[in-house]
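Sample entry (220 residues):
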Amino acid sequence: IGGDGTILKAAQTSSSNNIPLLGINCGKIGFLTDINTHDLKSLINILNGQYEQEQRLMLTCNTIKDGQKTFIGNALNEVSLMRGEIVKILEFDIFINSKFVCSQRSDGLIISPPTGSTAYSLSAGGPIIQPSLKTISLVPICAHNLNTRPIVIDPHNTINIKFNKDVIAAPSISCDGQDKFFINPGEIIEISQAKHTLNLLHPLNYHRSEERRVGKECRS
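Predicted structure, serialized as tokens:
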């Protein structure tokens, strides 16, 4: 019961324990919550077994240093690489399955599954991806390069982000905006598909409710 932030927090526990998640919207937007507090009839129908189930891809993030992995968190919306306490552009290399892809000079990078394509990733110019697709998108934040574009890849790939060992920008990493972790010199960020997916429950007519809500957002 809450808004999208509540869903993101609850997803951490429910996904790893295979517990279905249902959202009742008491927040401002509620893209991930289907039931409004004035329409609790939908809740009764769901308790009577009238619902749809949907599996949502999640990401997992670790840091690696000297061969040792440290778990950072799981993400339903995005893993965000951002500037830390020092306001300085970040310089890093992106590898996919240990193969070099590109070098980046930007304020950060957003790595998101399809659910997060309409969140922070969208604001940064990323693509809108249908939730049922199995993809991971990499979207730069304010890249200092005219040729930099978002990248969409298969979720079975492993993404590594490497910094120069003498990096002084003190970059930070966050999963769904829950906590912020600072990256130390020599640490590598590893992002891949999480072992567990999120099982979302929806009312049978939730597509119509979603169309009305999105239409209202567009008009406003």
